[in-house]
Amino acid sequence: MSPVSDCGRHRVRVVGRNGDRGAAVMRRRWHVAAAVLGALGFVAFLQAPAALAKERSVLSLLRSLPVTAEQPSGYDRDLFPHWDYLGNDCDVRDRVLITEARKGPSTGTRCPVGRGRWFSAFDGVTVRDPSQLDVDHLVPLAEAWASGARRWTTATREAFANDLGYSRSLIAVTASSNRSKGDQDPAEWLPPRTSYRCTYVSHWIAVKWRWRLSVDSRESSALRVLVQSCGNPRIQAPARAR
Fold it and tell me: Is 28 found in the same domain as 15?
């Protein structure tokens, strides 16, 4: 009688010595395929928690920031080369304006940036003329310097000042609201638009966490109170920049 090999639901009839060899090869192929599929499923299982782990509570990010006294001496804005040239007559400031425009701008992706429509999150003002906007470093350059950037290389400070890798680092707002903020931290200044304050504080902490900057004790206490009053929201933690 000819030997018969069962492979799944299909019956494969093989004959003689060559048939036995064929059956063995087929069994090996099934085993390899099963192993590969099992491995892929296991990889997917491992990757899912990693994706979820990127979401963190704001308070957990705050707790991971070192608390130290600020050291502002020696700061100079020129120590942070900013608005790097990106080509096609555009720099980093232009790129932020183009990206954040609610409508337009009239020049499309070309520079200099033409008229469009922007919403200033700090004060809730709608702006159509880009000359009325500042691109704000959410964590001001002077604040970054006093919180650890004084120890960075010029190249790292330049990367911070032109950070397009995290959309919360730079924000287009009215010039008046940006000048009102100046170099103050959230213990000293909050956006006049109260509905934006929880978002502002969350982004402040996220930027400091991204760049491994410190907070001073007064700033830390104020941030903790603010985050708790906001219900300790969860956000996607940014990639570390350094």
Answer: yes
